Amino acid sequence: SDWPLVREQALEDPRLASFLVDNALLDLIRAWQRGEFTFTEAGGYEEVRAEVLALGAAAAPSVAALLGLGNGYGPAIASDVLLRLGPAGARALLAEVAPDRSALVRGQALDLLGGFAPLGADLEAQVRTASIDALARDPEWIVRERAARTLAAARSLRIRCTRSSSARLERRMASSASSSDARRPISITRCSS
């Protein structure tokens, strides 16, 4: 079939890429809702997921937006697909940690960021920075707790804690501890050199 070549050409046009991603995600959600999780079923979840994964980085932001669905399958699909997209999935999740997102979405994005395999130094530094910022500044204790878990998972990401990042975190925590929105104390252990 010529579909892989046609798909690759379509991804070069942002409007066509958006169309392909939106339709693939609709099919993915429908397959999930029907409980069709095997390749033996035409249009089943695994088959459609393979198509979404073939769309690659173009699909990542729309998949990450599924975290905002108020049901169980949106976040579950996002988790399944974004982790398989690797660095593109992590980049999309970093956008979901933004303060203008709901606390639920910020927390879920941080949870997922802690589950990635090694991402490379630059992207791992971005994950670490986003987690430290959320830990120090997020008004919701549950988001701060998830940020702490992501930082704790950093060992599996091979993110190295440096003295400067530890000192910066301690300063941020000290300044946020005096704010009225700090509901739960967080203990910070100094990084080893």
Please characterize this protein's 3D structure:
The protein has 11 helices and no strands. The chain has helices spanning 3-10, 14-34, 45-55, 60-65, 73-85, 87-96, 103-113, 121-137, 141-152, 154-157, 163-177. α2 (14-34) runs antiparallel to α3 (45-55) and α6 (87-96) packs parallel to α8 (121-137). It is globular, with a radius of gyration of 19 Å. The termini are far apart. Residues 156-163 and 179-193 have low confidence and may be disordered.
Name the features.
disordered C terminus, globular, mainly alpha, single chain, 193 residues
Helix coverage percent: 55-70%
Give the averaged pLDDT, no decimals.
82
- Helix-strand pattern, N to C? HHHHHHHHHHH
The count of DSSP E runs of length 2 or more, i.e. the number of strands, is 0
Output the radius of gyration: 19 Å
Counting DSSP H or I runs of 4 or more residues, the number of helices is 11
> Which sheet architecture does the biggest sheet show?
none
Binned strand content = under 5%
Low-confidence segments, given as residue ranges, are 156-163, 179-193
Shape: globular
Structural class by secondary-structure content? mainly alpha
Separation of the first and last Cα atoms: 56 Å
Summarize the structure.
The protein is an all-alpha fold and 193 residues long.
Compile the SSE list and pairings.
Elements: H1 3-10, H2 14-34, H3 45-55, H4 60-65, H5 73-85, H6 87-96, H7 103-113, H8 121-137, H9 141-152, H10 154-157, H11 163-177
Helix pairs in contact: 2-3, 5-6, 6-7, 6-8, 7-9, 8-9, 8-11
